[in-house]
């Protein structure tokens, strides 16, 4: 689509896509802003990236925050320090005015989005509210009183300023309404998609299963927070029950060496590298279950990626996970306090029932095609944007 076609289209909007980091970089926030902006552009909108934003004083507060943690004091979140917030807000306002957008789209932008210039509609998207992540998500634990107060104020002011508020889960949406007084008519739940450059072919991922043991796949960047220890324990439990099982852990490593028959650890695979991307795709294709006993998650893009590959997820019903993993459709949910024996029981029973496993594989892929992809997200968002 040419620039003139974009400008002439009654549906097209000039969107200032505002992010603290660089939304054009696939490594920023696991590629979610990258895929958001790309899918909005695919709907015919002119997307102008406002970011990365500049806060020259930020390194000073990062150093101070590290010192607080080292001395086991309550920490100041550098992004919520008053001077940092002021610099981000000033830089974003200046850059937004410079591009004269029809709309500002600010994913996870509560640090600055409250200051979007008057007269410009604001679309605010996030996967949680501060009230939900405080002392739940690892990035928001043990905060100082000043940091908590600032984060709370920024969340409230941004929600009050927004003309459209988007979340991927009811868990987050209800908090915005309940805890921050958001107008229910402005809040919409639209699932996020799989961060894949290309969706795998349906027939290839739902083809005949390769014979062999039960293959489990775990992908996560933090061994402790994502529950890798429970995953390894689940593998040991299954093998202890006489079941042939294997587990691949990709994306993290334990602090101390872990030895377990059937376990393979891949510290990191770069999605930007074609060869490594293909290797990751093959891990999904080989897996029977995607196992992630996460301790805290607001959504879980990896669950969408597993669904794209027809792999049912096994996960706890915590945070926004139940909206990404629908029990009996895209996987099986367990209680948040489930242990290795609980996971092993669910996996062994499901694996022993090939018909049920095949149904879960098909329904997982169906869910990806229907709603857990960025095209479906952008179509719904684009319609809401038109209403503004």
Automatic annotation (TrEMBL):
CDD domains in alphabetical order: GT4_PimA-like
Species this chain originates from: Bradyrhizobium canariense
The Glycosyltransferase subfamily 4-like N-terminal domain, residue ranges: 35-197
PANTHER family: SULFOQUINOVOSYL TRANSFERASE SQD2
High-level lineage: Bacteria, Pseudomonadati, Pseudomonadota, Alphaproteobacteria, Hyphomicrobiales
UniProt name for this protein: Glycosyltransferase
